[in-house]
Structure formats: structure tokens, C-alpha cells
Predict the 3D structure of the following.
Amino acid sequence: MSRTRSRASPQIAEQQLPVDSPFARSLRRFLRHRVAVVGSLIVLILVLIALTAPLITPYDPVKANLREIDSPPNGRHIFGTDQVGRDVLTRVVYGARVSMSVGIVAVSLTTIIGVVIGGLGGYVGGRTDDLLMRFTELVMMFPTFILMITLATVLEPSIFTLMLVIGLFNWPGLARLVRGQVLSLRETEFVTAARTVGATDWRIMWVHIFPHVVGPVVVSMTLGTAGAILAEAGLSYLGLGVQAPVPSWGGMVSRAANFTALAIFPWQWLPPGMAITLAVLAINFMGDGLRDALDVRSRHGGI
Amino acid sequence: MTRKEVSRRDFLRAAGLGAAGIAAAACIPAPQSAVPEPAQQTESMEAAGPVSGGTLTIAPGALSFTNFTPWKVRGTSHYRVFSPVVQALVRGQEWGDGLTPQTKEFKITPELAEKVDVEEPDRVWVFHLRQNVKWHDGRPFTADDVMWSWFAATHRDVARQSGGLPQIKGAMNLGENGGTMEDLTGAQKIDEYTVRLELEETDFDFISSPNTRMDITPKHVFEDVPLDKVVDHEPFAGMPIGTGPFKCTQLVADQFLAMERNDDYWGGKPLLDGIIFRFLDGNTAVAALEKGELDVGFTPDLASFQRLQEMDHLASATFPTPCYWAYYININRFPDTYHQLHQALLYGIDIDEYLAVTTGGLAVRDNYVFSHIGVGTLNQPPEGLTDYSFDPDKAQAILEEINWDFDRELEFSVEGEPTVGEETFQALAANMGLKLKFKVFHPSAFVPEVFDNLDFDIYSNVQGCSTALGHFWRIVKCGGTPDAGGINWNNYCNPELDEVYAAAMQEKDLDKRVELMKQVALLVDQNLNGAPFFRGVGRLIFNSRVQAIYPGTDYAKSVRVPHEKIWLKQT
Amino acid sequence: MTEYILRRLLVTPVMVLGVTILVFVMYNLAPGDPVTAMIDPLEPTSSQVDREAMRERLGLNKPIHVRYLIWLRELLRGNLGYSQVDGHSVAERIAQTLPATLLLQATSLLLAILIGVALGLVSGLKQYSNLDHALSFFAFFGISVPNFFVAILLMYFLSVKLDWFPLAGMWTPGQSTGLNLDLLHHMVLPVLANVILSLAGYMRYTRASVLDALGADYVTTARSKGLPERWVIIRHVFRNALLPVVTLVGLSLPSLLGGSFILEQLFSWPGMGRLGYTALLARDYPVIMAVTLTSAVIVMLANLASDIAYGFVDPRVRYD
């Protein structure tokens, strides 16, 4: 039975195999992961769609058109129209902008918090580390989604609130991962060597530690984006998402998430629903491939 | 702060939407013209007469309640649940469909009172109680129960939960400071089956208004209960004991309340074996209706209503509610032009199109101001009232006349997120060149920000759900605040109107009162406090086996749902 | 070992305290005042003067840390405040709804673990087979669909269309309640939705764990000793692969409880999630906060239990 993953820690693996650059090797491993490649292509396409939205569709994503309410797909509206006559395709395309930017901003927030807390804990160690890790465990104990709901109900509704709420609580896993990585790197010979020749903490962090943390961070960001898109959908369903009429995938699906739309207006929920599923699936596959390629071992990093 | 705000919000809800519910709760039949009658109905009319048996399952339209006492009734869905159990002395009859005018022949439906003598019109009554009525626990119903109920409803420890009956003589003091039965001087027991009720002032809404809680609860249950524990006294709070056609048998919190037939019901033996109220999410209720797990579902969303009514095993009914929907320009921000802006909206927005989108054309277009003011009193518009039919040119002319800046974006304040109605309004306003920009408020911030701080250029609201003129007045009266008993959130002020209205309220002669109300209507017409669009319409979907619940039966004029006369067709 | 458990036990109350601080901070961001919400609405304090006196007496005009202590003291007395909507004691409502949630979540958790681990084992042993790919895809798909949509689809097809299961609720209305077959029948759909949504984690985790074990030295040794393959799998691979699964229990509980807000409402399941949802619609903050607090404490206790259990089954564990 073949094993693709090495049990050894990444830096040792790299030192043993100096023949090609780590990047080229990771890329090769990633490309071998077919599903991950397909996933990445889908993600790329979705990003392109989001960026070029106005070129793809001539309609206004927000303006109601009362003459064409609940129209099934037809020549002019290939995905039909919604409750107030807006083109569904247009809203899905513009929704990609909102949903993905919510996902990306939220995840960036998560990453910053996670890397700072994990890095600080791992690098400084001692009491600081102890304190930070207890805090991390504390946040980890909270049912994240309930926490999101609670915070969303007390803050003023806006897209920034949403990004904040989704991004604020998901960092403990990453923080622990980064801490573990930093902790083990701190003791390695090349860091000790660098220290003895008088390298500053910043330099050590940047040159010797950061490159090794990139892998887990990238993987965690990818998977986190998928989670954030789903969280946006869940919060939308509870009326805590992006405020209508601004289109978002979650908002569109949850507005059509009723038995009547299910039965007679499939065009109102299928496209945004598929968009969510496709995006989340693709991002997850991409993350899975990245994990293998970057050789990130994570027990608690979810699936 | 919190408490105050909450009670305020409750008040607003109860006053506006809540009362809508109460009207709807009564399952008010539609005039025959409102909707084409479903085909099933004629069939069912030909079927054999009423049979008894079976259990009716109703989703009252609420997620859950923990308290079903009259003191805690909160709006429609709540009222639906307790109305088969708890009864009142009398119920106003004519307000039922919200469109039927009060006339000189105005009648009330006797319930626990067999006969009512009017000692002084709209102020003093003598109620003669039914003598054969038993509580669900077998104890006889007497005047003591009525006296207790009035006392409880007005005492401060209970009234705070119910809104009370402040009109009764002595009630204000009892509500402020507490006291004993003797302090409620307006209520007198004459003998075991006769009670006399006296109000502080004339109030011609009192006896018929759905807002007047005349519901009667059993005194003996509360004999040893401290007053401040009455409202939440278990098991009564969860399964009240009443005199109605059905008695509570099983409550599973947040799930259902089961009731069974009260064979001793004074109005005759009910036909159904039982009723079950299920607390379902609105969306789930739609599926339950489709599946046949549910017999009656109230106010499904429009698309679901239209889909379900096409199904073979389901039938539908609509009923106009007295609530009217209006759009309000902020009078403080447009002190000189609000009247013209309201006019421009009434002329410039195609209300028929608006209604086609938002209500499937079911709602009653009602864009002349008069009917809201005159409801319950007048059935014909007075001479000289403006007819605001769709006329874009007129709207443009008005806007030009006030030098409207067409680049200006109006802040359109909405709660939570814009509804389909609000989005439709925005689209139609764009047609007349008005730019509306949504300003979204958190539900908990909407009341303080929009009603108190008046943070809006324009917003929509539903009100007047109670046909009680006194209630309506709280919305338009000059300088009123919620705390002072009014809900004049737009700071509308029209001293002349105030005067005429006050005179109308004091007028005991009905003809003269009608004349005064005509003046009121005309005064509002000359100085619009809002742009009224339409009357709401209630929607009801039910299994076609359910008989005698919808229009076209003998009970069409009934105000409350005649639960004891509903029956199920055998299949 | 004993030290590990002891320290774990000692840390828990501190964590609970941390949880209360977090909740209180959020509560203070909300409109209204947490401590005022602790006043029983039935206490006769109708006038403004009474209310002011009450505020004074309760120390509501004091700085935030004092108010936190007041709030905490009330919490310790079991006073979670009163609903702003119906004035009901929040503690009573939580006590009323919690069992339904625990029943649903425990069943879902158990089934998700059983099925997830079983599929994960299969997937791991047959790595890169079609079955492995299919299972992986299914697992990913399960977590890529919004949970409300999974629930609605299940309800529509398995209940409305096929009529295999009741649509919603815990018991057939009007029938007897309790632990009976009717309850079991009503549990199928919500449990199924939960399992679909949380299966993937266990499956992927077990799969990775099996792969790890297969490559481990002790397996190679066992094989080289000539033990039959089946014996190797059962004795060495399964045992070592399954141990860490214990720790997963605490990990998926947060998402299950979070999902209950949506699923319980759709399935009309009379649990804490539905209570939270109803409160959410009305912005009934005392209830929302109590649900958050209770959920966090449950997760914490579950984690504690699973950590201790893991400490027992795997003596290598130490507290760091």
C-alpha cells in the first residue's frame, strides 16, 4: 500500500530532498491530485466571473422589474427572475462578489488573529504562551455559529459586521497549528544558528519561521473560506446576513428556501444553491490538494 | 430602560400589527365580491349536513407560546389559540369584516351575557348573565367571576401584562396604585347573575372594540393566588379553564395544545371531537398543509397561498382586515411639503400594480383617505373628498410645484431588510422620478430610531388594524406620544382636527357624530398625515374537509370563529 | 495521568468564568441592560420611581465590572434573567427545552460517529479505490450544502412526497408523549439531517488515522511476524486508529448546537435551538445570551469528558 504523506515534519523532509525546489515539488504533487486541480479551476472561474460581472450580464442586480416577476428561465433571462423581477443569473454573478469577498475578508481576519496569537505564543513561550493558549481553548469551547449569531444580533447590520462576525471566532484551530509549528522550529538548529550570529527576532521570524508556516496557513485559509461562505448562508437564513437587496448567494438561497419555491420556482434557488455548493466543494478540494502538496499534517484542522 | 422600551414596543405591536391579528383571528369572512369562491365550496354546500366527530388541527401562525391567558394575549395567533376556550361577556359584531359600517342598528353578539341593557349610551351598561353556564371544571359561572375578571384586568399587578381596561371608573387608580375590589367603583354586582359597568367617560368604542378585553376568567381558580402571580399561575397559564366550546386537555410546550369537546357547552354540543393547535414554523406549516398533516393554516406567504389553493385537497379564503398600509413622509424634515409629497405618492404610484405584486391583487385598494378615518362610522365618502386615482401627470405637476429636487435621495427606513412591498414601492417611486435609498435598521433599533428619533425621510407602516376610532386617533392626534397614550410617531399636528375629533367622541347622538366624523375625514384630506395605499387582506388555507369555517356559510357574520359549528366532511 | 485529569478538572471552572465574561461583554453591546433583565417583571415596580430605586439597589449605576459581578451572582443563583417578550423565567425555559436538544444531538452525534467511523475505516483501508473516492465526494458534498437546504429537501421528499416520516414535531399531536416509538419516528428526519451534515468530519478523520496506522512501525512489525492480515487490521490498525476519535466528540458538538438554531426551527423540534431562534426573531437578548451560555457550557463539559476518557484509554497523553 503506497503512502503519499510523510510522517516526518516538513522541514526535515525538505532538507533530505534538495534536488528540486520545495515549490516545484509541491506543485507537482498538487497537480497529481486531479480533483484538487479541477477544484482550483472552478475557483478560478468563479473569481473571474465575480471580477467581470458587468461584462457578463447587462442587468442591474438590485433594481426591481415589476413586469417580469417570478419568470421561469427564458431567452432573456436564462435563469429566470426572482420575486421582484430581477434577473437571477445577474444576482448570482454579482452575488459571487459579495459572498466571496465576505469569505475572503472574514478568513483574512481569522488568519491574522490566528497567526499572531499562535506565532506569538510559540515564539515567546512561557507565561504569554500559556495565557494565549488558555484563551484559545476558551474560544474553541464556544459553539462558533451560536457565537456568530449572538454577535450579529447585537451589532448594527452591515456587510462589514458580517465579515467581522464570521471572521472573529474561527482562528483557534489555526492558532494552535501555527503555535505548534513555530514551537518546533524555534528549537531547530538553523534558528539557533541564526540567533548566535545575531539575527533579530523579526529576521528570524521572517526568514526562518514564516516560510514553514505558510503551508498550514494557506490550507487553513482555503478551508476557512469554504466555511465562511456556508456561514454566510446560515446567517442569511436567520436574517442576519447581507441586507437585501444586495445580492449574496446565501441571501438568495435563504429567500427561496421554502417549500413553495422548492416546488415551483426551482430557478430561484438552484443557481445560487449550486453556486454555494460548487464553490465550497471546489475550495474544499483545492484545500485538500494543497494540504497534501504542502504536506501539512493537521489533526484538528477539520476535514 | 430595557423594560420601558420593550413595553413600548409591545404596545406599538399590539396597537398596530397585533390588533390586525385580532381582527384576523376572528376569521372574518370576506364580502362575496372579494374573491371568486373556490369550486369546492359549492360542492361542499351540496354535501350532506353537519356530522360530528374528528379532530381539527390548526397552525395558529406562531412558533410558540407559554401562556394562553387573556392577560397575555399578544396579537392574532395568540388569540386564535385561546378563543375556543375563554369567552367574553359580549363581542362586537359589526367590526368583524372591518368594512361594514356601524349603523344605528349596531349590535353586539351576546356571549356570556344573555342580554345587555344600556343605562347610558356608550358609558353605562347592565349585563344579564347566562344562568346555565359551567366552567370547564364543572363549577358554575356567576357574577363573581365577572367582577373578579374586571378587577384582575385593571389591577396594576395584572394589568401591566394585559393593557387593562382603564376606561372603567376607578380603573386608572387601581392600575397606578393597586387596591381592592371596592376601589373599582365602576363595577357593581347587582345579584348573582347581574352586573353593572360604568365607564369614567363616554367611549363609543368600548363595548365593541376588539381591544377591549372583556374576557372572563374563573374566580375560584385564583382564590389563593397572590395578584402578582395570577398571570403566570400554572396550570391555568398553560391550559386555561374557560366556558368555551372546547377545553384544554394536553399541553406539550412548544409543540401543541390539545383541546376536547366541552359537552356541557351552553351553546350546544360542539360537532368536533377536538381541536389541536400546533406551533409550527410558517414554512413548515405550508408543507404540513400540502401533506395533509394540518387542516388550517393562516396567512401563508403569497406564493404558497397561490400554490396551495390550487391543490385538490385544499381550499382557500381571504378576508379583508381593517388594517391599512401607508407610506409616511417625515413631517419634521418636510414641514412645508409633506402634504404635497403624500399627494404626489398617491397620484404617482400605480397602486393597482403595487397590489398585484405584493398581494396577488387580493388586497382592497384604498387610496382615499376618508375610509380610514371613517371606518366603523361612515360607509360613504363625504362630499368633496379627493379621489386619488393613478395620474402620473398630476404627480409630476405637484412635484414641480414644490420645486422637488429630483437628484435628492430619500432615506427609506426599513426594519431588518426591505420587504417585497418596500422594494416594489421603491421601483414604482423610481418611475415617477423619486430616488429612494434603503436605510436598514436592526429590528431592535427600529422603534427607538424611527419612531422616537424620527430617523427617516419615508417609511411604511401598517396601522388602524383595530376599527376602534379611539385607537386610530392615537395615531393621528396632535402631539401625542406613546407614553401619553398616543402613538403619533410622525409628530402630526392639526389642532382643528383635534377639536372636531374630541367633539365627535363626546357626541352621543349617532347622526350628529357621523356628521362630525365627516368633517374629520375632510380635515385629514386637506392635510395628509400619510399616503394610505390599501387595506390588508388575510389569507387562509384549509383542508377541503373542513366545513363551516369560511365565507359562504351561515356563520359569515360571526365575529369569532364558530368553533363549535365547524365540522369535518367524511372522506 | 491523575495529575492530568486533576488539572483538567481545575481549569474547567476558570474556563466557565471566561465564558461568562465573553457573554457579558457581548450582552453589553446589545441594546438594553443585562442586569435590568434580571428583574422579575412581576415584581411590583410599575412606577418610574420604584424602578430607579430598584436600579440603585441592584447597583445598575455602578461601573461595568461591578455589574458583571452582580450578573454573575444572579447566574450562580440560577437566575438567567427574564424574557423581554413574555416575561418568562429564562432558566425555566432552558430547563424545559434542553432535554429535547440533548436527545436529538446525542443521538445524532452517536450515529454520525458510528457511521462516519465505519465509512472512514472502509475508505482508509481501500485508499484510492472508487469506493474511497465516492465516499470522500459524498462526505464533502454533505458539508458543502447549507444545512437548512438539506433539511428542507429531506422534509419535502421523505415526508411530504413519500410520507415515510412525520414532517415536524416530537410526537404526533394529541398522542401520548414520552420515550416511545412515535418519538423515534419523529426523530428520523432531524437526526438524518444532522448526520449528513456532520458525517464528513468523522469519516475523513478516521480515514487519515487509518492511513497513519497502516504506515506505522508496529503494523510493519506485526506483518513481518507473519500475522494474518485480518488480525493485523483488527488488532493493530483499528485499535490505534480509533483511539483519537474519542477526542472528536467535543469538536463536532459546537457545530451541531449551532446548526440546531436552524434545524430545530424547521423541524419544530421543541429544543433550545428553537428557543434561541424564536428569541433571535424578537431580539430577546436575555434568552439569546442564556442559550449561548448554556451551549458553551455543554460543549465545555463534553470536551472535558472526552479528554478525560481519552486520558484513560491512551496513557501517553499528558497535559501541556
In short: Residues 1-18, 298-303 of chain A have pLDDT under 50 and may be disordered. The CA atoms of residues 146 and 157 of chain A lie 17 Å apart.
